Amino acid sequence: MKRLINTVKDHSGFYIADEEEIRAGKASDVYFSRSMKGLSHDQEVVAEITSSSEEEWITFSGLKEVLSLLKPRNLTISALEEGEIIGTRDSGGIPVPFITIEGKYSEIGEMETAILGLICQSSGISTASSRVYMASYPAPFYSFGIRRMHPAISPMIDRAAYIGGAYGVSGILGAERISMDPVGTMPHSMALLMGEEAAWKYIAENFPKGKRTILIDTFSDEKESALRAARMFPGIDYIRLDTPRSRRGNFPNIVREIRWELNLRGFSNIKIMVSGGLDYESVSKLREAGAESFGVGTYISSAKSIDFSMDIVSINGTAITKKGKYSGKKDVSRCNKCHKVKVKPSELHIEKCECGGKLELLNRKVYESGKEVINPKSDSDIRAKVTERLNSMIIAGKLKN
After folding, report:
1. Mean pLDDT for each consecutive 10-residue tract of the chain (401 residues)?
2. Of 275, 295, 329, which closes a domain?
3. Full domain range(s) for residue 268
């Protein structure tokens, strides 16, 4: 124990890995570096990343960071587009390769831990965000959850939440990285320090139209406070409820009651925003009750990671893998007619679906010989594609019901 303590670097700052340490493989599991030392010679491999998640669909994200990590390594990478909404298995039950990496094992092995970490957590957050989008539609929701996670990864959390469908994010740095202005209302501390009505006045007089949101549940009954705020500042845009769980009772009914009273007294222009411990199920119920905007935190930022794994499927041109996996390089396609996803061996070059439709390739080459070979999309463009697909899923679900 004494020897171990003496070799540990004194660390008085934050317990995070910097970019240099991640690229050097120091944020990886030790057995990969040990394996590298035991190999007598390097070999050409094809490694693919699949998921064992049982989610009906996921929103894939994190690819941008994976490509950044692997620069300038001499590899060829094919992948689904970031923001692709897809099941983890095709229509026949074959696992979907989200990323395929080809090259020397020495260029890949020690990076496996970091590669997986970059997409597992990000995709989990994006997927949770997409589920909230579907629950709140067409009302907007905002990601307020970075306080639940380590601040070092707050930009990643905000980006993943935004890609998944969030209309905005609360983090200053996260918003900066996705070229947006951060979104926020007023904290309870403002009401405590200034006095509730003084805080309301400040928001009403200093925030731009469309963003004047006042928090009404610091001290009094929600209905009483909502009506008092509406009478004092009839031009505000939103009242916000962030009522503690211990005081909520039936939260949707509180929202219904406030909406009724505001409408009855001529304040139908004032919308209701809710926040605090929300998930997609509670958002759906509150939306039905009359809430028109949502702040969602922990459910998105602390979302369950998507369980991706990376496995060798070919060595020196020969298809081989471990048990439980499918060997050989594969293509992922979606039929433009029946919309089924198909995973097929790459060498078969199948272009037609059984239904007669055309199979459109999803896992395209994105990186070769140390550089990206496609023009990366902006985060806003990725989000636009995600929300377009989610909107079509919402419409299809309504028609089905």
Report:
1. 47 86 90 73 94 94 97 95 97 97 94 97 98 97 96 98 98 97 91 94 91 90 94 95 74 95 97 95 97 97 97 97 96 94 92 91 94 92 98 79 35
2. 275
3. 185-275
Number of domains, the chain: 2
Decide if 227 contacts 261 (C-beta within 8 A).
Answer: yes
User: What is the rounded CA–CA span in Å between residue 125 and residue 163?
Assistant: 9
Question: CA-to-CA distance for 190 and 204, rounded, in angstroms?
Answer: 14
- The single residue listed with the structure tokens 């491999």 is 45
The answer to whether the beta carbons of residues 307 and 51 sit under 8 Å apart is yes
Nearest to 66 by CA among 90, 89, 98, 96: 98
CATH of the domain at 259: 3.20.20.70
How far apart (Å, rounded) are the C-alpha atoms in residues 145 and 245? 17
In angstroms, the Cα distances linking 135 to 254, 274, 347 are: 19, 14, 41
CA–CA separation, 66 and 56 (whole Å): 24
